[in-house]
Specification:
This protein is an alpha+beta fold. It has six helices and 23 strands. The strands form five sheets. The chain has a six-stranded antiparallel barrel with strand order 4-13-16-15-14-17. The longest helix has about 30 residues.
């Protein structure tokens, strides 16, 4: 663009008055200012000024969907709420059973557990049970061969033969004595031998039964071999049987446990002793099945207090027919005290961690607010609420993680 040429007089007539020279110079500056204004107007029409980040955020409509408002609330459209699968419920006080919550460990029922070992040193010739197998009562778990048992069988068979001979002599002596063919002395001798042989046979049989508790006269096979049987129906939870090794009576080859009923052992503190009683209903939860409850009852409270922990051993028995609970699992046992109280309880899935704090989403008008809360004890699939929400407020009970993801995504977008 060409600027208009405006002459500026730098040389004045020395005879001209001073006022005239000032007027001429002022006219020159006015012309120059007009030219610069015209140039600025041309530039403005060609390229509008860029908006600042602050100006852009102010220009965005306050109700923009899926965005965090200036007050930190998240606004979603009806379609976005449906897609996120949100469920909003009014928070109300509930009447809950008063419970004592204990940290516990699952144990096998000690009344239904057995360490299976042979009664005599023997070598393992066959192992048929494996770790984790379910065995029936009387089922053969292993076959063993014992030299000592073979010798006991031989002694027993010899004692049986001697008894048979002594029995025949005594019966013959009885007949002869009745016919007065032999003197009394011979009869008494035959009777003495019979009693002695009978005692020897009984002793040999008792020793054989001691070494082989399942001895059966009709069993076929080597007299030195015997089966190791399961004492009852259960699960093999330990196995130390190795084919060819020499087993000893003081070393367990198998441990069989009946896992259909388990013990939940916990420490009950002195302050809670007066609140519970034997026979009280109990609920057990484990992290493996967070949405499930296993119901049982309190069956035992120890009579002594541990001097180190100042706690009393308590035991809850829980049926386990499907075998989902495993020994040595950590568990939480909630024992009913028999009383109830009103409290605020919210679903565990409604609570999430945000900035290191337990947080829930509350519907405020047409937007969702992330609000920190203080939590109490867990009760089944719910958790008690100490503070943060008032009764009547609308809580997001399902889909809270979707709201958290949208909020974080919006915040990341704004930061860029």
């Amino acid at each position: 663009m060409n600027l208009p040429h405006t002459p500026v007089f730098t040389r004045l007539d020395p005879g001209a008055p001073a006022m005239k020279s000032r007027i001429v110079v002022s006219l020159g500056f006015i012309a120059l200012a007009a030219a610069l204004t015209t140039l600025a107007g041309c530039n403005k029409s060609e390229a509008p000024p860029a908006k600042t980040e602050t100006g852009s955020k102010e220009a965005a409509p306050e109700g923009k969907e899926g965005r965090v408002k200036e007050d930190g609330h998240l606004r979603l459209s009806a379609q976005e709420r449906k897609t996120a699968g949100l469920r909003v419920e009014a928070l109300q006080e509930q009447t809950l059973a008063d419970q004592v919550t204990l940290t516990a460990t699952i144990k096998a029922n000690q009344d239904r557990i057995a360490h299976v070992a042979p009664r005599v040193p023997a070598r393992l010739v066959k192992v048929s049970a494996n770790l984790g197998d379910t065995v029936r009562g009387g089922q053969t778990m292993a076959q063993l061969d014992s030299l000592e048992l073979g010798e006991a069988h031989s002694v027993y068979q010899q004692a049986r033969s001697q008894l048979a001979l002594a029995t025949a002599d005594f019966e013959r002596a009885q007949k002869l004595k009745a016919d007065e063919i032999i003197p009394e002395k011979e009869f008494m001798r035959a009777r003495s031998e019979f009693e002695k042989a009978k005692a020897s046979q009984r002793a040999a049989f008792d020793r054989l039964r001691l070494l082989d508790g399942a001895h059966n006269e009709n069993e076929q096979g080597s007299p030195s071999e015997f089966p190791l049987r399961a004492p009852f129906t259960g699960t093999v939870i330990e196995k130390n049987a190795v084919l060819g090794e020499l087993a000893q009576p003081d070393k367990s080859l198998f441990t069989v446990a009946d896992l259909s009923n388990l013990w939940i052992e916990a420490n009950l503190f002195e302050k809670d002793l007066s609140r519970v009683r034997v026979g009280a209903p109990a609920i057990v939860t484990v992290s493996a099945y967070p949405k499930e409850e296993f119901r049982g009852k309190l069956t035992y409270i120890s009579n002594t207090v541990d001097k180190e922990s100042r706690a009393v051993l308590a035991r809850v028995e829980v049926p386990n027919p499907d075998g989902r609970l495993k020994p040595e699992m950590f568990a939480t046992a909630m024992i009913d005290t028999g009383s109830s109280a009103s409290a605020l309880a919210i679903p565990q899935e409604a609570v999430l961690m945000l900035n290191g704090q337990p947080t829930v989403f509350v519907l405020e008008g047409d937007a969702f607010e992330a609000r920190p809360v203080e939590l109490g004890a867990k009760v089944g699939n719910s958790v008690l609420l100490k503070s943060g929400i008032q009764p009547g407020e609308h809580l997001v009970t399902r889909g809270a993680y979707s709201l958290k993801a949208k909020m974080l995504k919006s915040q990341i977008g704004d930061s860029h």
